[in-house]
Amino acid sequence: MPFNCHNDYKMKFSLDDEFPDLSQHNNHMAKVLTKEIYGKLRSKSTPSGFTLDDVIQTGVDNPGHPFIMTVGCVAGDEESYEVFKDLLDPVISDRHGGYKPTDKHKTDLNFENLKGGDDLDPNYVLSSRVRTGRSIKGFTLPPHNSRGERRGIEKLSIEALASLEGEFKGKYYPLEGMSDAEQEQLIADHFLFDKPVSPLLTCAGMARDWPDGRGIWHNDNKTFLVWVNEEDHLRVISMQKGGNMKEVFRRFCVGLQKIEEIFKKHNHGFMWNEHLGYILTCPSNLGTGLRGGVHVKLPKLSTHPKFEEILTRLRLQKRGTGGVDTASVGGVFDISNADRLGSSEVEQVQLVVDGVKLMVEMEKKLEKGESIDGMIPAQK
Amino acid sequence: AQGAAMPFGNTHNQLKMKYTPEQEFPDLSKHNNHMAKVLTPELYERLRSKQTPSGFTLDDIIQTGVDNPGHPFVMTVGCVAGDEETYDVFKDLLDPVIQDRHGGYKPTDKHKTDLNADHLKGGDDLDPNYVLSCRVRTGRSIRGFCLPPHCSRGERRAVEKLSTEALASLSGDLKGKYYALKNMTEAEQQQLIDDHFLFDKPVSPLLLASGMARDWPDARGIWHNDNKTFLVWVNEEDHLRVISMQKGGNMKEVFSRFCDGLTKIETLFKERGHVFMWNEHLGYVLTCPSNLGTGLRGGVHVKLPNMSKHAKFEDILKKLKLQKRGTGGVDTAAVGGIFDISNADRLGFSEVELVQMVVDGVKLLIEMEKKLEKGQPIDDLIPAAK
């Protein structure tokens, strides 16, 4: 049983004294956390010392977002999802469309199982991108990890990435000590990530010791990119201009699997289990952790009264081209899969490919002044 | 004594011990704060396995200093205490920090407390044509509770409850009301802003990185007396911040109210079985090592348009053991030749001694200002170093 003297000290105070005031709050954690659950879990600690208060701090400090239902809790290590399942299972169920504690998640990174996707109309689809995250077994997660752990992750990642060849040959740029020229180039390529400013992230402790142990790796072709020690141990991104999602997904799968093999050789595989799939810091990214999407011109369709409904039925979501929380510019939208958990990588990218294809057809019809009523899909 | 209180096997700290000191030692190469100047790898190695009885560790202490390399104009402290025991368990780091920050104060030095306002000579007649307002502030921590970087919601609420009960028993000139941040009405909020009383959630990364803003605004609030001359902040950067202030130049009255109010509050806490954190070496124990001793900043807003442009202004302030700030507080610029002039020291001098320095120093600065107005030199007025 882990020994946590700070947690034991807090047990001197009653449940009512310690229970957070969530009366102004609107996030998944606040909707789930009752006094009963708090009472049951407050004395617990994961083996690395992560506690219930650590899990929920970001949700207590950030009552909510006007447009988005935030998650309001994070994991500090792989065991968080087990030790605090009484809180996290209901949060996961709410966030991931009713996913049950007994459900199994399938992983499919075989790009050949994707049908089509190589011919999205480049007059409409400006770029294609697939991203996910990976956590390395044996280390705690960004809200909790120490400098030694973070540096250990960085070191392993650099070794793994340095051994990649061919289309994956590339270079690592640590945030610390980056030259001005390198920094400007990375900004121009839209690759550079900066110290988080969002209180959702800073309140969870992810920005500690910045920029120690953080960096960006990308291949020479600038089509495959890895972020080290930002919101997750690794964020892996495959991207290119135009509409060849199949190629983007191929590179994504191949690159990921190569990286995974190298980590396994060092006895540090990725955190994964058959219930939650890939384990990441935020419960919203469990399962595939995958967001696959395109930047696509839909000026007419986006003003159609049924646009939102069509997206919902296609299991897609829209964002502005600056990412989450931005507005679209010039009728160009970021369209991506809405789901993460309960369907495989191939299935999610298939939804994007099929859905975007349909929406481009609809756009073309609307351009010609024709109706799209006959094309509106059933709920997927 | 330390071994008897020392808990063993704190899981998180134990996990970190798997990594070598070199692997865990922070990169302080870009840093310029007191912690970074003192913390060596050897010191880190010696202290990293320790924790206070409430579980505060070395990494907790230094996190704010690691996350905030420095300030261009101000030498920041870069470390905080999480409880009273921090200053003892981690004295190998904090004693040198205290020494650097407080003018060579030694681990063996004793600090004197003097809250008898009768000991202040003069101070009731600073020229109100120049001195616009007077203010004295300090902080207090309640023994038995962890400090803002570390305290839980239960602790913070207990501090609030004790404080509001104690303050509710004040009477006469000190009779007042508590406004919890959590359920303040818009009208109350606007009034407190207009009075310049309202404090808001910290935005400075120096404070955020140490964990002081957790659970905001739970258990935070402002109490002030009906006359608006005595103000207490609950659970901001310290358990309590106590402020006495008024317009004009009667520093003696401000200080008298300060001492009287503080002493009454202390008595009320004692009646309820709680005392302030204090010891004869460090005086009053507060979250930031810079506020140890008296925790007192006493000052005035004063018009010194000529004086402030004089070539020897900085030098004179230093000799008088005073510091200047803009009228918005630390890091702000002076507006219209009006400066915030206050004592530079906190530890190693008593409250009376520090306010005496302000009273005597400001009196002299005004004399100099008047001379300069008349085009006369001030060379013979320049003081020796105090």
UniProtKB/TrEMBL annotation, chain A:
Class of the enzyme per the UniProt entry, highest EC level: transferase
Binding site for ATP: 127-131, 190, 235, 291-295, 319-324
Known EC number: 2.7.3.2
InterPro entries: ATP-guanido_PTrfase (IPR000749), ATP-guanido_PTrfase_AS (IPR022415), ATP-guanido_PTrfase_cat (IPR022414), ATP-guanido_PTrfase_N (IPR022413), ATP-guanido_PTrfase_N_sf (IPR036802), Gln_synth/guanido_kin_cat_dom (IPR014746)
Domain of life assignment: Eukaryota
Domain Phosphagen kinase N-terminal: 10-97
One cellular component term from this protein's GO annotations in UniProt: extracellular space
Pfam families, per the entry: ATP-gua_Ptrans, ATP-gua_PtransN
Gene3D superfamilies xref list: ATP:guanido phosphotransferase, N-terminal domain, Glutamine synthetase/guanido kinase, catalytic domain
Sequence ranges assigned to domain Phosphagen kinase C-terminal in this UniProt record: 124-366
Keyword terms: ATP-binding, Kinase, Nucleotide-binding, Transferase
One GO molecular-function entry: creatine kinase activity
Keyword Transferase found: yes
GO BP of this protein: phosphocreatine biosynthetic process
Protein family according to the UniProt entry: Belongs to the ATP:guanido phosphotransferase family.
Name this protein carries in UniProt: creatine kinase
Gene responsible for this protein: LOC115053140
Automatic annotation (TrEMBL), chain B:
Entry-linked InterPro entries: ATP-guanido_PTrfase, ATP-guanido_PTrfase_AS, ATP-guanido_PTrfase_cat, ATP-guanido_PTrfase_N, ATP-guanido_PTrfase_N_sf, Gln_synth/guanido_kin_cat_dom
Pfam families: ATP-gua_Ptrans, ATP-gua_PtransN
Residues bound to ATP: 133-137, 196, 241, 297-301, 325-330
Entry keywords, A to Z: ATP-binding, Kinase, Nucleotide-binding, Transferase
Assigned EC number: 2.7.3.2
GO molecular function, one term: ATP binding
SUPFAM superfamilies: Glutamine synthetase/guanido kinase, Guanido kinase N-terminal domain
Phosphagen kinase C-terminal domain: residues covered: 130-372
Reactions catalysed: creatine + ATP = N-phosphocreatine + ADP + H(+)
Keyword Lipid biosynthesis assigned: no
Cellular component, GO, one term: extracellular space
Top class in the EC scheme: transferase
Keyword hit for Kinase: yes
GO aspect biological process, one term: phosphocreatine biosynthetic process
Domain of life of the native organism: Eukaryota
Residues annotated as domain Phosphagen kinase N-terminal: 16-103
Family stated for the protein in its record: Belongs to the ATP:guanido phosphotransferase family.
Record-linked PANTHER family: ARGININE OR CREATINE KINASE, CREATINE KINASE B-TYPE
Name the UniProt record assigns to this protein: creatine kinase
Organism field: Echeneis naucrates (Live sharksucker)
Gene coding for it: ckba
